[in-house]
Amino acid sequence: MKTFSGLAEGKRSRDTLFDGALHCVQHRDGYRFSIDPVLLAHFVRLNTNERILDLGAGCGVVGLILLYRFSSSISSITAFELQKGLAGLARENIDLNQFQNQMEVVEGDLRDIKKNLKPESFSTILCNPPFYSVGSGRQSKNKEAEIARHQVNCTLPEVVSAAAIAVKNRGKVVMVYPANGLTTLLLSLEQQRLTAKRMQLVYSYPDPSTGARLVLIEAVKNGGEGVEIMAPFYIYDKKDGAYTEEMQQFYDP
Fold it and tell me: Which terminus of the chain is more exposed, N or C, with fewer CB under 10 A?
């Protein structure tokens, strides 16, 4: 990812992906996306004419990546976001990349998702939810970043419940979450009739003494038994090393 530092107001940056093919404006001191949405956007498997919901979309980066990579498979993407500032960035990024015909932003609280979205109206839902309970994880003095990273305005079960309401029967819910929270995630999914069907553990680098960092999971609403456990994914080739070939491909045009 490259960063342009020349935005006149100084409080935002214009970052790029895919050698400058995709642009993404972000707040310098607010929530900024990391590697997690990049992994999520490449883990999902899409069919044709997908109606996608990005639940808790932030600046809209997941939808931007999907439309850059898989536009022909996508009928529409709805970026659902609570915070007004982030929703504004998502709208700007849609315009900046000329995705207006396929992507829109809806502002709202996922705890009352029926007020804004029709139940069971999406074929695939992607979500990079807040990872940390209040008081844990990396602390931030910035309110926007705190709400995006910590479960201040919603809990994981509430996120999963919103996804279950919005996804159609036999539709997919695809999430990225800390690997040490896998038990809680699986329980929350199962309580909403979302059955895990595909799973991949993500490690920082190959080292038998180092545990998984993240888990990528695909669940199906009212899905049957059987889950595919994929090979481990490594972000770096070694400690303090370069991206693995697989990870670098996610950033290549």
Answer: C
